[in-house]
Amino acid sequence: MYTASSARYSTLPYHRCGQSGLLLPAVSLGFWHNFGDTAHFETMKQLCFTAFDHGITHFDLANNYGPAPGSAEKNLGRILKDNFRPYRDELIISTKAGYEMWDGPYGNWGSRKYLLASLDQSLERLGLDYVDIFYHHRMDPNTPLEETMGALEQAVRSGKALYAGLSNYDGPTLEKACAILTERHVPFVLNQNRYSIFDRTIEKNGLKETANRLGKGIIAFSPLAQGLLTDRYLHGIPEDSRIRTDGRFLKESTLTEEKLEQIRALNAIAAARGQTLAEMALAWILKDGQVTSVLIGASRPEQILDDLKALDNTTFTPDELRAIDAASGF
After folding, report:
1. 263 contacts 227 by C-beta, under 8 angstroms
2. Cα(28)–Cα(306) distance, integer angstroms
3. What is the 3-state secondary structure (H, E, C) of the chain?
4. pTM of the predicted model, to two decimals?
5. Which of 110, 158, 203, 248 is the most buried (most CB within 10 A)?
6. Spatial separation of the C-alpha atoms in residues 213 and 210, rounded to whole Å
7. Cis bond leading into 67, ω under 30°?
8. What was the pLDDT predicted at 254?
9. Residue 324 near residue 285 (C-beta atoms within 8 A)
10. How big is the chain by its Cα radius of gyration, in Å?
């Protein structure tokens, strides 16, 4: 039986989700990759142990994480049952629904039918009575926003989720959703969106400004741009890289000579700061206090420990910020 480190709360700062009472660690562990049935179960366990031993109390999932869809929740359910039962009240477990999960018209998007059925399935796979945060995973252009928000309300009122979250929303839609949830007294606390030095969509679409104005938290996923913001591709494409082994998300066409030059320029800025490129990229997300937590993925426990080093320096000079903007094309 796993016994957590007694020093687990001495590593990380914890940030409040907007104006709510919920605190999240500055770094959270994402289960998008490396927790499906193609991964080694013992490695999954060690990733969870290393994270929690260093204060990462938040494990982030979705119904379709795998592969196969649902397998990340199933595998974490085994780990929770066998190793984390004494620590359930120290953990934040989040999951989502919004992308295609099963065949037919009721297994996708944002209907009440889909969201509440998906939550029940997630809880069964996880072996839990409730999740701490239940997100709608993406905006649905065809379902009334009132219906989708009503499903989140029902999830909370039923006790199957403690808080509601929104993922991949833009600023205007977030504002409308927040008004509905506020009127219905639903504890909506967190927005999850892609954010990195290379992807600043939440600055352009108003999400970052709106979330902070409304007092809602932000958690950033893909902070390393699928590995581009690491030293992985400084000298080309390794044969064992994700581009070579799994081209679903990061395409070889992405790694143009211009992109390589940007990566090398950013790496030089990081080196001058005494950081690796990955450490600087994570620190950059947290630099202004407007992002509650940054989601990391890992295939080895050592990667988690390396990523935590980013918290040693999250302060940037104006010159460094201008240099990063110039190097990344912003």
Report:
1. no
2. 14
3. CCCCCCCCCCCCCEEECCCCCCEEECEEEECCCCCCCCCCHHHHHHHHHHHHHCCCCEEECCCCCCCCCCHHHHHHHHHHHHHHHHHHHHCEEEEEECCCCCCCCCCCCCCHHHHHHHHHHHHHHHCCCCEEEEEECCCCCCCCHHHHHHHHHHHHHCCCEEEEEEECCCHHHHHHHHHHHHHCCCCEEEEEEECCCCCCHHHHCCHHHHHHHHCCEEEEECCCHHHCCCHHHCCCCCCCCHHHHCCCCCCHHHCCHHHHHHHHHHHHHHHHCCCCHHHHHHHHHCCCCCCCEEEECCCCHHHHHHHHHHHHCCCCCHHHHHHHHHHHCC
4. 0.95
5. 110
6. 5
7. yes
8. 74
9. no
10. 19
Rounded to whole angstroms, how far apart are CA atoms 211 and 189?
10
Amino acid found at 131: V
Please state, as a whole number, how many other Cβ atoms lie within 10 Å of the Cβ of residue 70: 23
- 40 Cβ contact partners less than 8 Å away, ≥ 6 residues apart: none
Find the farthest-apart pair of alpha carbons in the chain and give their distance in angstroms, rounded.
54
Answer positive or negative: Cα dihedral of 45, 51, 56, 60: negative
Pick from 185, 271, 263: which is nearest to 224 by CA?
263
Q: Are 294 and 28 in contact (CB under 8 A)?
A: yes
Q: Is the peptide bond before 39 cis (omega within 30 degrees of 0)?
A: no
Give me the amino acid identity at 44. M
Q: In angstroms, rounded to a whole number, what is the distance separating the alpha carbons of residues 178 and 166?
A: 10
User: d(Cα 38, Cα 210) in Å, to the nearest integer?
Assistant: 39
Q: Using CB atoms within 10 A of its CB, is residue 164 exposed (0-12), middle (13-18) or buried (19+)?
A: buried
